[in-house]
Sequence to fold (426 residues):
Amino acid sequence: MVKAVVGANWGDEGKGKITDMLGEKADIIVRFQGGANAGHTIVNDYGKFALHTLPSGVFYDHTTSIIGNGVALNIPVFFKEYNEIISRGVPAPKIMISDRAQMVMPYHVLFDQYEEERLGGKSFGSTKSGIAPFYSDKYAKIGFQVSELFDEEALKEKLVRVCETKNVLLEHLYHKPALNPDELFEELMEYKKMVEPYVGDVSAFLWNAIKEGKEILLEGQLGSLKDPDHGIYPMVTSSSTLAAYGAIGAGLPPYEIKQIITVCKAYSSAVGAGAFVSEIFGEEADELRRRGGDGGEYGATTGRPRRMGWFDCVASKYGCRIQGTTDVAFTVLDVLGYLDEIPVCVGYEIDGKVTTDFPTTGLLEKAKPVLKVLPGWKTDIRGIKKYEDLPENCRKYIEFCEEQIGFPITMVSNGPGRSDIIYRNK
Ligand code: GDP
Fold:
């Protein structure tokens, strides 16, 4: 059985925690898209970890953690993280890296920085991890698959060719030092040493695992609204964040994905630029940011303060629909326990008309939030295990959001830990 854990919003919904939790019963956990530009924070028996490229399954010794072909694989970052968890007492995880995964090249990171510098105030707020240049090269067919490390002559030749075009841009557009293909080759040979023991044919491995009835989790990065097709283009990420892409980025049949668990945070946060209709500012935002997540809403990769907002039913309804949601995991609800009243965004007013349909980017920029204010519950709900034991106003908040988004909330997360979860039978 294949399940996907994906985000409904802008990312940082708590997918890492849900994947880590569901990982207990999973045989295999696969990252299928994205790179080291976003991170998951996971709290478990070994401590608190910020993972950027390692799948969230690395803490279990019964799971195999896989880097699928859809990932932007930064090899040195991957192994830095790998060594870090081992040095903190986590047993060496079973890892498999797709021979078809492409590598983030050292110059992708440089191009990301140079382009943000060039754009100045008009920049995308990139994390400068090289992700956009990486995916551009992948689709321009000048990327490098892990498998290419194993044919040194062909690799050398291709590096010369790719450097020729890169160097034109470096010299004339960015006015930066040129790339040297020989140096890059040496660097790639270092990468080869690191990955060699882990490289394999992931789609064949998953095919057999499905036949054997294994439980496979697909772990998404970011959320629906950052999808390049269905998100807030161009303020999106460069690979698809949707469960459907899990089939491609892992290499398994789409019809095998039986459960799509869409993680939805009980309030909103976003990083980077782009329209964010239910955004709040000032002290109201600062307080939610300070209390949010587990230790504040600051980027797991960048440490940047996240933009904060109330729960957005319009964006979440759309985010869940476009994922093909079967189950919603409603997370970080405990954080809202300090509020007397909790505003929720129930509609967008665009040019004088109110809609609950999420629009394309141009219209989204003009949208003003229509808020409904719900009563708070003013207690700490951490530690509660049964839905019925939640305060009435808290249940009402959940049920109101559920009705607005139109997908069943079957899990409520009331704390960062693995066991802070309330299951609801729907
Ligand atoms: P991801 O990228 O979707 O995995 O999200 P992040 O890891 O960036 O952000 C989620 C943050 O919230 C992390 O610090 C988690 O430890 C924390 N978290 C997850 N679920 C809960 C929850 O139910 N309550 C609280 N207080 N924190 C949570």
In short: The radius of gyration is 22 Å. The chain has a mean pLDDT of 94.
